[in-house]
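Input:
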Amino acid sequence: MSTKLTTTCPGCSCICDDIEVSVEDSKIKSVSNACRKGAALFLNAKPQSNDGIDDEIDEAIEILRRAKKPAIFGLDNTTIEAQQIAIEIAKELDCLIDDYSRILYGDLLDLVLSSKIPTCTLDDVRDRADISIFWGSDAMNSQPRHLSKFSYFPRGEHKQKGWEFDRHAVVIDLYRSSSAKVCSEFFKIDQGGDAAFMDAILGTLSGKPPSSKELLRLINEIKKANFGVIFAGSGLISGLNRDTEKLVGFMEKLNEYSEFCTIPMVKAYNMRGFVETINDSGLERGEPFPQALVNQDVDAALIVGADPLSDLPFPVSRKLREIKTIVIDPRTTPTTEIADVAIHSVINGIFGEGSVRRMDGVEFKLKPCCIAGGGLSDEAILKRIMEGL
Amino acid sequence: MGISSFIQSPAYEVMILIVPDIFQSSAGYAGKFSEAYQNASAQIYLDHEDMKEWSIKDGSKVELFTDFGEVVLTARESEEEHRGIGLMPPSVYSMRILSLDNLHPAKIRRSKGEVAGIREIIGK
Ligand code: SF4
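Output:
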């Protein structure tokens, strides 16, 4: 007999909590409301077994004990509870701990958390935003339900007419992305042209003649807006050459015309959670992990919920083969394949539970929708490693 | 064996931009060693005019190379105009040739090679 449940998706930083699944014999048979990515996550979820897990954990402890320069990396795709234990391990080992946030977004998340850049929640966006600007971010491919749940299509408390009349959505990017195809307006900029485009916006707002009809239209929309949001992606940060002060200044000036906020368009489902958790812990992260690898400042890496072989350039990831590597991940990935120890954990939100923060910092609980049977969560594995150390 | 098999196709400069692709990331949940994920990863989207100029056909094989390495990929014609830029999703294929910068200069040429499997690329 199948059971129908409403659950929360850990497929991206939208953390959709309206996913309906039908479960039969601990297997997900059907999924509704999810995007293609979320549906694939649920329908391909497999339980883990406990076979060999004690030996793998012992081996991981042994590697970390023997290491002179250990490091912990990843952690954007796991729960806050697991992140907290990883931070405890980092304190115990006195080692660097890092995620992808600095690599992809520089210090953007810190600027948002310290209120140097004003921010808001996605619920504010749905209820009030007149204009959404996707800058160097492609929601349609990375956070697929973002436009339909929050930023463009939905009716909100003060936005009853939705995208047809009430909202304006703009994409600024190096190429016409899938998001650009569905939004009202697209501005193609050259690599590194982000700062100049910011200047062009501010110049036209202050009365200088616009360089194009399209820019004039954008300026009119900005002037008309009571509330606007910039969804800042990694493309913006690299286009600014990581000079996020430029964005701070731009936001200050923009707020002289109307209320504007920024939400970092992080991709991993709990990157925001990691940055908040590590900031709260007061622990310094140390050298960025890719740099530490290249500089041979790491002799053993504990990688949690990440696949650097698939998303870090080869000159960096090849260094992982020269050191001892432990990977905790629910799935088999190129990085688990080259690891000295690969420990397969259960998938959070399907077989495991924990807290996560959506891209705007709002906390959600992931609850299991299937009976795990075997396997341990990232949190339980890290706890055992911590105890062993 | 004809002399043509010893002559390499001309190489052209292209900037590689790593972009997300929902089809590739969804296929990743079915397994990062699955055929679907491999096919979605080992491709490069090129501008229509560039493809015409470089005599590269949609679905044909190309070799992409930088100082860091080379990979054989399937060329796909992009629906959008992005002259001089090749779009690739993040995977072991794109990472194999990248430096640490964001837009990565590379060279591309027609290839008679075969796309290597992910295990082959990672040496496993
Ligand atoms: S948008 Fe993200 S969280 Fe929502 S269903 Fe898709 S993958 Fe899951």
